[in-house]
Amino acid sequence: MKLSSLCPGCGSPTVEGLCKRCRLESTTLLSCPPRVEVISCPVCGAQRLQGRWQPADRPVEVLVSEAAERSVEIYRDLANPQVTLTVSKRGATRYIAEVELIGEFEGMPAEDRCTIAVDLRYETCDRCSKMAGRYYEAVVQLRARGRSLSPQEIEECEKIVLSQAEKSLEKGDRLAFVREMKPVRGGVDIVVGSTQMGRLIARSILDRFGGRMRESYKQVGAKNGKELYRTNILVRFPRLRDGDVVVVARGTVLEVRGYGGKRTLCLSLMDGGRVFLSEEEADAARLLGNRSDSQKTVVVAMDEAVLEILDPLSYKTISVTRPGHLEVGPGDEVEVIGSGDDLVLLAPL
Ligand SMILES: [Zn+2]
Ligand SMILES: [Zn+2]
After folding, report:
1. How far, in Å, from the CA of 228 to the mean position of ligand 2?
2. Of 59, 66, 119, 230, which has the fewest Cβ atoms less than 10 A away?
3. Would you say residue 101 lies in a domain?
4. What does the pLDDT read at residue 338?
């Protein structure tokens, strides 16, 4: 190294201008504001950042430490910077964050430190204040065509509702809360904070059960010059549900195995073929029972056309037409619903 001058700062020999040590001394490695604020909801712990509330499932100490970390600025050309934060509580809402920085300044080890006062301010978030104010935007009404919803359907829908509420909140829909799920005649009303979430719930339920959806809204007042609307989202389940066994035109016996759009998908219990029923055909079908009420029995004997099976109610042997697609033999267990003349042999799932 060619030494051509002396440092004007300290007088040591240097290449040009200030020496490294003097440059380090005149550089701000770490700049910290004296005070930062953390705004947190006392009810749910959400945090307000840049004017926006967001869910925070972290302890207050972590929020304080994150706020302190966000507020510090580190000299851009410091190599391998490492920051250590120590947070201590100094009052009900006052924390002190001590920040230590180490790194390399032009190859020289360098360090700096500072102290930030972090004040915690409690403020009820938008969501909690709306929840407390009995606010809601939409009601999702679950009903079925020509029947009541079954307890199983209701139970499954409740799971769909709660999981959608969680997803919507994670995605930032602050009004994604379920105010109430109330049983009503024939179905359930789900009262929700957000119309957007209500629609997502309705769509997931339609995806699962089929049926139809209809949305309507009405004005319920005005606030701050803005009109307030409530949305009603009606989900109408199909008349027939999974596992229903029905008789349709010309005595064909079918089991419901799902839906395709607005049509009901069935399996023929006579030949194993797939059949789609229109809404009108589904309405006209005669319901014999549901697979959930099936009983097990045994095949006693069979020939080309007929199976003889034990009636699970009377224990008498009765003959049924042998379904072309069913591979069973004497001694095999089969599932049936009904008894006597209404006995129907189910196909394996
Ligand atoms: Zn110097
Ligand atoms: Zn809150």
Report:
1. 22
2. 59
3. yes
4. 84
Give 210-270 as a DSSP string. Answer: --EEEEEEEEEEEETTEEEEEEEEEEEE-SS-TTEEEE-GGG-EEEEEEEETTEEEEEETT
* pTM, full prediction: 0.71
Residue 54 C-alpha to ligand 2 middle, in angstroms? 9
CATH number at residue 72: 2.60.40
Ligand closest to the CA atom of residue 122? 2
Percent of the chain clearing pLDDT 90 (strictly above): 64
Say whether both 30 and 122 belong to one domain.
Answer: yes
Using the predicted structure, report yes or no on whether residue 225 has a pLDDT greater than 90: no
* DSSP SS3 for 21: helix
Q: How many domains does the chain have?
A: 3
Ligand 1 centroid from CA 78, angstroms = 19
Owning domain of residue 225: 135-237
Taking the centre of ligand 1 as the mean of its atom positions, its distance from the CA of residue 75, in whole angstroms, is 20
d(CA 77, ligand 1 centre) in Å: 19
Query: Does residue 91 sit in the same domain as residue 175?
Result: no
Choose from 90-94, 317-321, 339-343 the range with maximum mean pLDDT: 90-94
Based on the fold, state whether residues 114 and 139 are members of the same structural domain: no
Tell me how far the alpha carbon of residue 33 lies from the centroid of ligand 1, in angstroms. 29
Rounded to 5°, angle at Cα 269 from 265 and 270? 125
Ligand nearest to the CA of 175: 2
